[in-house]
Amino acid sequence: MKPNNTHKINQIIDMLDSITERIDDIEKLLINKNSKVEDWTTAGLTEKEKEYKKEWVCQVCKKSTFETDYDYIVHPKLCLGCALEEELKGNDIKDQYHEASSRLFDETKNKRSTQNKEKMIKN
Question: Where along the chain do its domains lie?
Answer without folding.
Answer: 3-122
